[in-house]
Amino acid sequence: MGAYILRRLLLVIPTLLGIMIVNFTLTQFVPGGPIEQVLAEINGEGDVFASINGGGGDAAGVEIQGGASTSEYIGARGLPPEFIKELEVQFGLDKPPLEQFLHMMWNYVRFDFGESYFKSEGVLDLVWDRLPVSISLGLWATLISYLISIPLGIRKAVKDGSRFDTWTSAIIIVAYAIPSFLFAIMLVVVFAGGSYWQIFPLRGLTSANFDELTLWGKVVDYAWHITLPVLAMLISSFATLTLLTKNSFLDEIRKQYVVTARAKGLSENRVMYGHVFRNAMLIVISGFPALFLGVFFSGSLIIETIFSLDGIGRLGFEAVLRRDYPVIFGTMFFFGLIGLIVGILSDLMYIFIDPRIDFEKRDS
């Protein structure tokens, strides 16, 4: 098993390198860039110093020398070439693309992800500040999804074809068909002061006085804030897992060893939980790391936006819009690495659940 894990770990390096090469190459053909974003802010706000050193573009940090008015640069003569050249040097865009990529990867190997162009903060600091939000959403949505889906899926498999199975399937299909963002908006309208009740808060994971609360008060306050976002993420995620659990159990129930166990006089509970459960749950439990990662990445952007949560989803989305390359590539490298390691953990989960599986023999 150790040799298999070592091989998988070694494969992480070329795979991650390939991911970065493909995405870096694609950005070379995408119109616009960080410099164009800065220039667009300047022209849009009409104030060079405000846009570069002030509100929206503080990370550029470049001042225009010479005392000429803003209108002379933008209106009559345009921005001076020296100013644009200085931006290119500051952003590291004055070098050939290959040199930029090699320099970036050398820094990433040392886990130096640089600073954001527009936020004047390190990429790791930005990710670390927003990580609790995304982890909260992803972890709780995944755990609750498993707690609901596994018992429900087992019950549906045992009662296959019954009225209970039919009605729950109908509810699951309807829930799966509802987009998560639409369900989130409905929750806001109904329960967060939209048009009906003001039961739950609309912003943040905690209240302003969170540090002053007791331990129990902090738990309640956190649960109060996280309820609606997690519910919005659950609406479609538990449907797939429930049906997967049901089908997995049905497949095992129909196998010969179950018929043999029943013929020996074993009780239905002994057959179900002593023989069927481990085999049927193999595919369900082993997919936990991948499911959490999927919820963590793909399911958080819209939910974070609707509920005004500063998580990884919004950070990445804003970085793409503003062509904030250090944030884009830094988070891509970091989470690409996590994704590849999670793939290895998924294989280890198979072995943990069923020790009979041996990947080394399979590879040989």
Report the major sheet. none
- Counting helices, strands and paired strands, the structural category is mainly alpha
Helix content: over 70%
Please report the number of helical segments.
18
CATH topology (fold) name of the largest domain: MetI-like fold
Which residues sit in consecutive blocks of at least 5 with pLDDT less than 50? 45-77
Query: Could you give the count of β-strands?
Result: 0
| Mean pLDDT across every amino acid position | 77
CATH superfamily caption of the largest domain? MetI-like
Portion of residues in beta strands equals under 5%
The H-and-E topology, N to C, reads as HHHHHHHHHHHHHHHHHH
Report on the structure:
With 364 residues, the protein is mostly helical. The chain folds into two domains: 34-122, no CATH class; 124-363, MetI-like (MetI-like fold, Orthogonal Bundle). It has 18 helices and no strands. The protein has helices at 2-29, 34-45, 48-53, 70-76, 81-91, 97-109, 123-158, 163-177, 180-191, 215-253, 256-263, 268-280, 282-285, 288-298, 300-306, 312-322, 325-353, 359-363. The two termini are 12 Å apart. The model is unreliable at 45-77 (pLDDT under 50).
